[in-house]
Write a structure and sequence with these properties.
This is PTS system sorbose subfamily IIB component. The chain has 157 residues and is α/β, with parallel strands linked by helices. The chain contains 5 helices and 9 strands. A hairpin with an 8-residue loop joins strand 8 and strand 9. The relative contact order is 0.20.
Length: 157
């Protein structure tokens, strides 16, 4: 399995903070996006691949392909996993993907969501996933960039 250096939930997926700050902070050479819609859009996939540095490999999978790939991989890559939703992280963990910590960047507001931090709004489904990870003793932090103070989500919900 590739060394998963970070699992990040952020609805923007690949953006400046990932490219400029997190790749370097995590010494990563691969980005894996897990998104059931984006994996079906080759134009957007090609666009995103042009945004990452040349020395970084970008792969886009649906949730099932991601689980299969991550569980079967014998790669020495250092990977950042990007997803839009906490429930997909929960699904991956339940299917055997080893997740040591979860980083939350931005989860947008929406109907029925509760604001718990700047740019982080949680649904009941998100809170269910957080409680699952609390029981499994997997830390979940809110941290926009590596040099900002990480906040343990269990302390703010």
């Amino acid at each position: 399995m590739a060394d998963i250096t970070m699992v990040r939930v952020d609805e923007r997926l690949v953006h400046g903070q990932i490219i400029i700050k997190w790749l370097q902070a995590k010494n990563a050479n691969k980005i894996i996006i897990v998104d059931n819609e984006l994996c079906k859009d080759p134009i957007m996939g090609n666009f995103l691949s042009m945004t990452v540095p040349q020395n970084v490999n970008l792969e886009i999978y649906d949730i099932y392909e991601a689980v299969e790939t991550l569980n079967a991989s014998e790669s020495n890559d250092k990977a950042i996993i990007l997803l839009k939703n906490l429930y997909l992280v929960k699904f991956m963990h339940q299917k055997g993907v080893k997740i040591k910590e979860i980083n939350i960047g931005r989860i947008p507001s929406g109907p029925g969501k509760k604001k718990i931090h700047q740019n982080v709004f949680l649904s009941d489904e998100d809170i269910d996933a957080i409680e699952y990870f609390r029981e499994k003793a997997v830390p979940i932090i809110v941290q926009m960039v590596p040099d900002s103070l990480p906040i343990l989500i269990y302390d703010v919900i």
